[in-house]
Amino acid sequence: MTLNKIRRLGLDFDGTIASDFDPKNFLHIGTKAANPIHTNYIYRFFDILVTMFGTSYQTPQPNIQKFLETNNTIDFFIITGRPNYVARWTLVWLKKNNLLQHFKEIYFNRAGTSPLNNKLTCIKDHELDGHIDDNPIVILELAKKFPNKVFVLLNPVNSLTESDKFSNIFWAKNWIDVAEIIEKFK
Questions:
Q1: Residue 117's domain is classified under what CATH number?
Q2: pLDDT tens digit string along 152-173?
Q3: Residue 42 in domain
Q4: Where residue 45 falls among pLDDT bands split at 50, 70, 90?
Q5: Residue 35: is its pLDDT beyond 60?
Q6: Torsion over CA of 105, 180, 99 and 26, rounded to 10 degrees?
């Protein structure tokens, strides 16, 4: 099967564009599926506080700026599992780190679905040619659903097993590796 040329590329936020940060780890309250208080306003209040605090300590991944600048023929889209109600602090962070101007659109998890379902929907609805993410489960499921699109697992540790290897999944330790992979599909 021939893989798409990359003209429209999705990128995850936490752990991909920015250093890894997960408010659930900070709060120790679990996921939405495991914890029904996720939709509670008290949870949202604490989620907003933690995201404000945590995002302020995140740094851009090394070489992300250079990657975005040198690949200006590609339209970049952020597809994040972050809920819509913390969008403001994410946008402030992107602007503060001079990254906002590189993204055509930013898709937050407005429906409150799982990050995977949010990414599946965005890739399909917006006809993206691929996606870069630090979550191997997300990458694996996306690759199964869209066999002609390019997916990059950006993670210092390759946690995919031999049975998980698909011809449309590529592993990168850093943004320099990502640049080399994406260059093949321009």
A1: 3.40.50.1000
A2: 999 877 777 766 678 899 999 9
A3: no
A4: low
A5: no
A6: 90
Report how many domains make up the chain. Answer: 1
- Within a domain: residue 92? yes
CA 89 vs CA 51, 144, 149: distances in Å: 7, 33, 31
Place of tokens 């997300």: 138
Instruction: Name the residue among 172, 181, 160 with its Cα closest to residue 62.
Output: 172
Q: 159 vs 42, 138, 154, 170, CA distance in Å? A: 35, 12, 11, 12
* Residue range of the domain that includes 137: 8-17+59-183
Sign of CA dihedral 74, 150, 148, 186: positive
- Tokens read off for 73: 């023929």
Distance CA 84, CA 51 (A): 12
pLDDT tens-digit series, residues 122-151: 999 999 999 999 988 899 999 999 999 999
Residues with Cβ within 8 Å of 157's Cβ and at least 6 positions away in sequence, in order, are: none
DSSP state of 30: -
Nearest 5°: the CA angle 42, 30, 21 is 90
Dist CA 125 CA 154 (whole Å): 23
Nearest to 15 by CA among 138, 149, 143: 138
- Rounded CA-CA distance 90/56 in Å is 9
